[in-house]
Amino acid sequence: MEEKNNISEVNDIKKSIDEEYNRNSNKGKILTNAITLAIAIVISAVVLFALYTIIQPTLNTFSSSVFTKEQLERIETAAKIVQNDYLYEYDTDKMIDGAIEGIINSLDNAYTYYETEEEYQDTLNSGSKGNYVGIGVHLTFDRETEGIKVLGTMPDSPAEEAGIKSGDVILQVDDIYLNIETYSDAAEAIKGEEGTTVKLVVLRGEEVFELEVQRQKITENNVTTEIIDDIGYIRIYSFDNGIYNQFKAEYEKLRANNIKGIIVDLRNNPGGLVYDTVEILDLFLPECDVLKLVDKNGNEEVFKTDNTSQIDIPLAVLVNQNSASASEIFASAIKDSEKGVVIGTRTYGKGVVQYVRPIKEHGAISIVAAQYFTSSGVVIQDNGIEPNIVVELPEELKNDSYVSRDQDLQLQRAIEYINEQL
What are the structural domains, with CATH classification, of the chain? Predict the structure, then answer.
């Protein structure tokens, strides 16, 4: 009788599983959910145990400046449960990494993230060489969709060839679904081995579509120039990888052609290195304060130009809703100094700085630690910079990386402004 009851119970369980499976007809959904739940449980256990491993030996004598005694006791209780009952083997270093990552993820800030030692070294190496294998996009976190927002694409890049546009939002990278916790992993996953492909799910307006883009070696050249009717035009794609030397060389070539004015195009520029940005501003501005950096303790650092040179011809700076960070610093400094005008639309509004704090040869934390104020006192974060002259592009063109000159109303207005000053 007991055997029959057991068989009946098994059949009942099987029937319940079958019914659940039928209710979720998408292929693999149950398995995915189960695995996701299991991983979440394991990660939670790992994080708690790692914290316990760090804290427990000194728990009775250690007075934490971060955790209260009651919080430490909660961690200890949870960690003991894991230590006593967890079935499988574990890697202590991975647990510590998991604990640190859990702490950082709890901050819910896309610009604050943890990198393992391997990831940190990859970041250092790719940044120092000025090249990497990827698809050639400038990215930031999109607060509204919790996806990866494309601020711009590099010239002749795989992203440009695939039709990716500024303003597109990437919702999925291969098997990684985007949210604030997966942002840094997803952005890193866009990179990979040369010749391999990455699958992207992209949101453009209300349309969602898939793209498969082949990764290639990307060598960043962040400046292009031309002369338009005796006016120098110089576009900066980002303020990275030797940008000051690139810019200065191209700027001097333009000036050698006796240009009557200059247009600096920062549209779809995601930002970059602040010190290089200030060095470029030195070419344009008299001695003045450019911006102020303030940390959580109220400590201030003021960035200044040194008056070694300043521009003596009309200057216009083009910006749009995808101009961010260092681009906003540059635009605000030109606007506040009145050495030129800013033309376009309100900028993105990223005015925080991240410090990279290594952890004793075990990775690093990139953490938002301060915010910028313009010399006129504007908080850039979440506010952006309002242009002197607001000019909108047609809706269907505003997120295009390249707009033909006859349709580019912002560029046309900049040319008009230069001519008005002569």
Answer: 2-105 (no CATH), 131-218 (2.30.42.10), 221-421 (3.90.226.10)
